Amino acid sequence: MNKITTSIVTLVLIIAGSGAVIYNTASGQDFLYKQLATLATGQKAINPEGLNVIVCGSASPLGNDPARAQACIAVVTPEHFFLFDVGARAPMRIAQGLLPINRLNGIFLTHFHSDHIAGVPSVNMNSWVAGRDTELNVYGPQGVGTVIGGFNTAYQLDQTYRTAHHGADLLPQVTAAMKPITLTPGIAFQDANIKITAFPVDHSPIDPAMGYRVDYKGRSVVISGDTVSTESLFIAAKNADLLLHDALSEPALETLIAAMKASGNDRTANIVGDVLDYHASSTNIEEQSKKAGIKQLAFYHFVPVPNLPLVEKMFERGISSDVILTKDLMTFQMLPGSEEIIVTDP
Ligand SMILES: [Zn+2]
Ligand SMILES: [Zn+2]
């Protein structure tokens, strides 16, 4: 070993040794954590231009993948922040994506399956703590009053504890509980820049179930919620820039059901078998999407959850490479006056 090599090896050992000392002593840990905490707490919420669609949950309840939260789509403009469904783990994605939780304007629910609502109370609490200055409106089809009334009852004590602890100036009770707003198909929300339209979808036997279309300064996104491929959606989605549609892979699901039966798990196999006819098969949506003049089709709410690249390949059967299989925190940005959709894959 020559002198230079010896010096480099010595230097590396000293640095590694110092690192170990810093990491394993109280003062070293305090120093390191101060740097990391300063970085973390200094992060600012996003405030992007144009119409931005962020996938805050791409999973269905069937299958587990820690990389995917359950159903959640965020729509962010410089003036608005709306969520469309908030399933389990979605509040974590909303925080990871630095979404502007303090200015959350409302939540739109497509229907009341647990994978679309489980994260609603956490989001309400997080935005209240972050300083939301009006009560949180939660829009949905008939039944939203029951669901939100139940959440409000369940979290009432938590909210009174927090107000008592931190004071009514910081956490006023008047903005603590959520306000349910029952929708029927038609315009659900409108201001000078944005229009949100609710339309019926077919998630039979779950009825009513809705999808939503958002139009902002000439750009648009349609969110399917859970549905089979249905005409009402493609009428509402006509000429939209982006369609986020739920997707079921029949070959993957049928293989999964067969494997469950083979291993003696008939109960789960029967429950999963019931799912086959109430989500949209990925292969028959693209053609209808093209006919409706939709510029970009993307899938989310995967049934089953593609926890392996192999399963993603199975979802790709019978569709063109133009179709996007979303991932959590994938972002679509649409600027007014442009036709481009800027896709950011995390
Ligand atoms: Zn669902
Ligand atoms: Zn559902």
Question: What does the secondary structure layout of this molecule look like, with pairings?
Answer:
Elements: H1 3-24, H2 26-41, E1 51-57, E2 72-76, E3 81-84, H3 90-96, E4 106-108, H4 114-117, H5 120-130, E5 136-140, H6 144-166, E6 178-182, E7 186-190, E8 194-200, E9 210-216, E10 219-223, H7 231-236, E11 242-248, H8 250-262, H9 266-273, H10 285-291, E12 296-303, H11 309-315, E13 324-325, E14 331-334, E15 342-344
Parallel strand pairs: 3-4, 4-5, 5-6, 10-11, 11-12, 12-13
Antiparallel strand pairs: 1-2, 1-14, 2-3, 7-8, 8-9, 9-10, 14-15
The chain binds zinc ion (2 copies).
One zinc ion binds at residues 60, 71, 113, 115-116, 226, 301.
Structure description:
The structure is a single chain. This protein is of the alpha/beta class and 346 residues long. It folds into two domains: 3-39, no CATH class; 45-344, Ribonuclease Z/Hydroxyacylglutathione hydrolase-like (Metallo-beta-lactamase, Chain A, 4-Layer Sandwich). It is built from eleven helices and 15 strands. It has helices at residues 3-24, 26-41, 90-96, 114-117, 120-130, 144-166, 231-236, 250-262, 266-273, 285-291, 309-315; strands at 51-57, 72-76, 81-84, 106-108, 136-140, 178-182, 186-190, 194-200, 210-216, 219-223, 242-248, 296-303, 324-325, 331-334, 342-344. An eight-stranded mixed beta sheet has the order 6-5-4-3-2-1-14-15. Strands 7-8-9-10-11-12-13 form a seven-stranded mixed beta sheet. A hairpin with a 4-residue loop joins strand 2 and strand 3 (81-84). The longest helix is centred in the middle third of the chain and has 23 residues, at 144-166. The model has no long low-confidence stretch (mean pLDDT 94). The structure holds zinc ion (2 copies). One zinc ion binds at residues 60, 71, 113, 115-116, 226, 301.
